[in-house]
Amino acid sequence: MGNQPHLGIIGGSGLYNFSAIQEIKTIEMETPFGKPSSPIISGLIAGKKVSFLARHGIGHFITPSEVNYRANIYALKALGVTEIVSVSACGSLREDFSPSDIVIPNQIFDFTHKRERSFFGEGLAVHIGVADPFCNRLSTSLSKAVKDVGGKVHIGGTYITIEGPRFSTKAESNLYRSWGISIIGMTASPEAFLAREAEICYATMAHVTDYDVWHTSQETVSVDLVVRTLHQNTLLAQNALLRLIEGLEADPDCPCHHSLKDAIITDRERISPESRHKLDILLKKYL
User: Fold this and answer.
1) DSSP of the chain
2) Would you tell me which CATH number, out of the four given (3.40.50.1260, 3.40.50.1580, 3.20.20.370, 3.40.30.10), belongs to the domain 87-283?
3) Residue 280 CA: distances (Å) to CA of 124, 274, 276
4) Could you tell me if 85 and 203 are in contact, meaning their C-beta atoms sit under 8 angstroms apart?
5) Is 101 annotated as catalytic?
6) How far apart are alpha carbons 250 and 47 in whole angstroms?
7) pLDDT digits (tens, 9 = 90+) for 104-120
8) The model's pTM
9) How many angstroms separate the CA atoms of 94 and 208, rounded?
10) From the candidates 96, 212, 253, 280, which is the catalytic residue?
């Protein structure tokens, strides 16, 4: 992993406007899984490498189901990214998680059904461990950074990823609440799982924009409400990320950086040259 951390940030294009960023480069990439959602903006902040990727494309034209999650994570891995922070909107399924609050979840419930969930397959079987899908070390550092810049942050909670692009019905929203789920969104899965397959630490800064549709006395979720709240929180997100970057240190012994070590079940002699070539940046440590 090297001695220096390299932070990848996946979120809206508004996050790129850091006055502190230096040596900016715009990188167009192609991967074995196609093109990532957007060109990647790379540079230095506080002397550390940072790369930004707009998950939904520049101008937000890619729906959650259409995002090429594999290309996005592969591209960041190819650039040498060692940690990823996802910045995303979410709805609250709890009374105490209020709009404009930040949630750093520690669990995911994947309720999607249309997405490619793994880099592997086609003759290469890999079973990755995701009992704890978010990196505890990075999540702890992220929550501290949000607190340090004055954000109201909730540490822990389960994020259910729905397929979208529609919002939930009241019946669905109330069912998720009965399951004990904390927040709802459309992008954590399979992004977090692919980051684990790529041996990249991953944490989410989830911005509560609404109470979904279950709350009878609050404004119901809408595109206008989501965008309005995200715009209000952009400066908070930038300040928190800057604080995180300033304190970020390399940790090559983080379990996330070794997650493939015991996950490859296919006999090494049965792995095709094509698979070896296609996934070299993921597998070269182990083959």
Assistant:
1) --SS-EEEEEE-GGGG--TT-EEEEEE---BTTB--SSPEEEEEETTEEEEEEETTTTTT-S-TTT--HHHHHHHHHHTT--EEEEEEEEEE-STTS-TT-EEE-SEEEEE--SS---S--SS--B----SS-S-HHHHHHHHHHHHHTT--EEE--EEEEE--SSPPPHHHHHHHHHTT--EEESSHHHHHHHHHHTT-EEEEEEEEEE-TTT-TTSPPP-HHHHHHHHHHHHHHHHHHHHHHHHH----TT-GGGGTTTTTB-S-GGGS-HHHHHHTHHHHTTT-
2) 3.40.50.1580
3) 13, 10, 5
4) yes
5) no
6) 13
7) 999 999 999 999 999 99
8) 0.94
9) 11
10) 212
Contact 58, 22 (CB under 8 A): no
| Cβ burial, residue 61 (10 Å; 0-12/13-18/19+) | exposed
19-49 residue pLDDT tens: 788 999 999 999 999 999 999 999 999 999 9
CA distances from 9 to 137, 203, 211 (A): 16, 10, 25
Q: Which of the following is catalytic: 101, 110, 210, 251?
A: 210
Residue type, 41: I
210 catalytic? Reply is yes
Tokens standing for residue 155: 């540490």
pLDDT tens-place string over residues 155-201: 999 999 999 999 999 999 999 999 999 999 999 999 999 999 999 99
* Residues 260 and 197: beta-carbon distance below 8 Å: yes
94: nearest Cα among 207, 214, 206 = 214
Structure tokens at 274: 């094509």
> Residue 163 is encoded by which pair of tokens?
């397929």
Which residue, among 56, 198, 57, has the nearest Cα to 126 in the 3D structure? 198
pLDDT exceeds cutoff 70 at 57: yes
